[in-house]
Amino acid sequence: MAFKEADLEKVFIDLLVQEGCKYVPGEAITRGEGEVLIEQDLRDYLHRRYDSEGITENEIRSVVLQLRSLSASALYESNKKFCSWLSDGFMLKRENPKDKDILIELLDFRPLGERRKSGFGVGADEEAMPLAADVAAKYCADCNIVKIVNQFEIVGSEKRIPDAILFVNGLPLVVFEFKSAVREEATVFNAYEQLTVRYRRDIPQLFVYNAFCVISDGVNNRAGSFFAKYDYFYAWRRVEFGDRRIEAEGIESLYSMIQGMFNRRRLLDIFKNFQYFPDSSKKEQKVLCRYPQYYAARSLYENICKARKPHGDGRGGTYFGATGCGKSFTMLFLTRLLMKSLSFKTPTIVLITDRTDLDDQLSGLFTASKKYIGDERVESVESRADLREKLQGRKSGGVFLTTIQKFSEDIELLTDRDNVVCISDEAHRTQTNLDQKITVTDKGVKTSFGFARYLHNSLPNATYVGFTGTPIDATLDVFGPEVDIYTMTESVKDGITVPIVYEGRAAKVVLNNSVLEEIEKYYEEAAEAGANEYQIDQSKQDVAQMGVILGDPDRLKAVAKDFVAHYEARVQEKSTVRGKAMFVCYSRQIAYALYKNILELRPEWGVTKICDDAEFAGEATELTDKEKRELKPVEKIKMVMTRSKDDEKELYDLLGDKDARKELDRLFKQERSNFKIAIVVDMWLTGFDVPCLDAIYIDKPIQQHSLIQTISRVNRTFAGKDKGIVVDYIGIKRKMNLALKQYGAGSEQNVEDITAAITEFRNHLDLLDKLMYKFDASAYFKSTGDGAELKKLECLKQAQEFVQTTKEKEARFMGLAKRLKAAYDICVGNEGITRAERDRAHFYFAIRSILHKLTKGKAPDTAQMNARVREMIASALQSEGVEDVLQLSDAEADQAKQNIFDDEYLQHINRIKLPNTKIKLLQMLLQKAIGQIRKVNKVKGVNFTQKMQQLVEQYNDRTEQDILKSEVYEEMAETLTDMIVQVRKAFTEGEEKGLSFEETAFYDILKSLCIKYHFTYPEDKLIALSKRVKILVDEQAAYPDWDKRDDIKSALKVDLIILLDEFGYPPVERDEVYGEIFEQAENFKKGR
Length: 1088
Fold this sequence. Notes:
The chain is 48% helix and 11% strand. α18 (513-529) runs antiparallel to α19. The protein contains 43 helices and 28 strands. The model is unreliable at 114-121, 123-140, 430-450, 529-541, 857-866 and 877-900 (pLDDT under 50).
């Protein structure tokens, strides 16, 4: 028996009941049809919570009215204001001026508590929670009324019924949307679209009061902010603090979400502290915490409370979070928890980074978050003196951002308060240098200390917290043990970062084996000197020796040649999303020599252009107005390094000053900028995020934890990016694996070798060969001479027809070809793949593109083909008339009714000899025709859609035996053609009654209601009423923003009721009739 959406809904409801929610079916709740609040619950909660403070009925009414005053037409701003009230409360002015104002909390947050043992399960000494079955014992008493409701009908511009809604105190805080995992066409993405497109359009009032949404098909269970992109909906894979991540998909991840996220206390905590809005934003930005951010911030907060001096040792703990997993937001969530803490009484928080660019990033986020943090004093510190001035006389509060370098040799006390928390980003570099250093000079012995020692002396009673992507022993000594860990492997599995592939190319460029031995020796000596890069006092001689080896002119020429070939192969095969690459060199001199060698091979890369990304987009795309403003002329390849006063003039001029580097930083992050290749030495290797960067070339020995940071530059997610690639010219593989093992808690398995991608590629190529073994493709691969291209084209067309033999074969082919492309994109630059293998792969890519276009109307892979195959696909599509159908946009609808649906065009399609192609084209054409009619005439649109769905299902059920029966295909093509003709007639069938196409839409709804509700109505009056309704709706639709204005919608409803009453329609008392006419009226206005 199939597991349907209704079954999934029941599972969610049952699990939520176990978490203390009460289940109530929607029909049992009394309210108005467009009402989204359960007002009685809200009133009951306010009485329960504030009766002791003498709250009056009028005051409760004013709270309800204040909530109702939030308009759905400015949805983002209304939701932002509501969430602020939800998390921080608001002051209620009393009816009696003599009474003290009340801070109204819409939820009872008292169960969160202020004691460290607050029921979060953080401390090892906390008592175990009761079993789920003992629901009543699971929570401390609160006044919250929590209900899970299904079948909750909401009438907006159309009637919609969300699958389930979690109400707390009558507020619809969480909306659930389910899809069945067994229905291939219904995905969790469809659930996301239903929420953010259909529901937003039809019932926006529901989302004024929304905290977050959950989408699920039983296998994939994700939560996210209503305003977030689909990619920012994530699973919740942990239940209790200290638990390991839940690996399994399906029912296990469903349990972990409900038991982890919807645990009563944690859910209240998320509502109060873990939804973020910036103070102001040009776009709709709302961030819901991911599970690693929640557990890390909450664990660190509890640990800081325990470690606070004088009772603790001031070591608040270390958080190890994989590079790219969102540590900045974890810091922000922690900062809010600290600021809202009663025990800390508004602490002062100092955020410390080790580089100016990281400081800029953090200060950008934090200074835009003053309301969320709860303190107006959030600012960057210019110097140590500036920080001293800001801290003088201050007893509490303030968030100050600075770099560790500002704590130079100055031991003057800044403050000895104990309500100061220092949060260090990249803690392995900022604060582990506490040791003294002795330097012997002519003038005597000089003792100095690392930056961190000066900081600790300046703030002796502060509590120190460390955030790092690569913890080392020294980090743990300074900040205390790891409080929480989130590894690279977990980050990849959760879809927060992409996997990394390693390709070793050292053998292509080394002059002899002794070079590799020298490099290995360098590593060993450096490692013996100490684990931390600050503790390695390497001799200048070692450094110079390595520079001689890596800077050998012949070697650099070989590196430049190989790099250009590898880079261009990835670009030509469209295996890079935007062509961004970073090349890491050993020294400035070597970087400059390599730069000159590359330009010698490709002088055009040194020409300044604004944008030249036709090769990445498949075709040139017009720049948007925003891009025209932001993009500036720049070379394709640039060096990013600081100037030296001893640089030769040409290099000095090339490098530019600090402002020039800042501009390069901005341009490299612009995905369409002409700046594609950055040659670096030390800059941009940590804390520099460019999501579309998908390749890093390394020609420099990099030590331990810095290596993890460096390769992680390519692990950020970006549309179309499956993996990041690390190309190694120096032999870092063994060190990389050791570093991953040491710092990555199992992450070494997460960097796969290029050979794995080649094996994957060959396996899928073999599977496709087997799937196609009955098809003779020799004409494609062996045709030569005159007419060869035509023979290849014909073979391609026959191949895609063969693949469509059955629905099952088609689905299998499409899946295999997609995975083949993903593997090919990784290993495209590797010489291990033969020319014959590449040709076979492109043959399959071409078939997939044609099929994708036939079914989806767009071909995502055509941009990722070499030019010859792209042209062939275009010819195949054009020759079958596919493009004519696809190019039929909404703007061409009127022309479409006259041209593309005429008999001649239908005959053209019916002359196509490939039956499956013909049927798919007719299907697409019918879909477009129904889409046009549905925009205006809802009744006919729904009717035709249902008929078409039945036909499509019938076609999809075809079997291997049907291939031999041509009448099966002929009958299907005939039926589809007949239906297209019917749709065409529907555009004009009202003319004999004297009705236009638009007036017929209202005639059809009025007539269908007579049949549905069993009443009669005179035909002449029906025709007259249809015309009047159309005029009335036209008048209201004159306002451009009608769909955002509730007053216009209300006026339309009133005018329609008066008009229908004037005509005596309907002659029976049926409120539903009005509802369905309003729906048609709204539908008509949208289609205008």
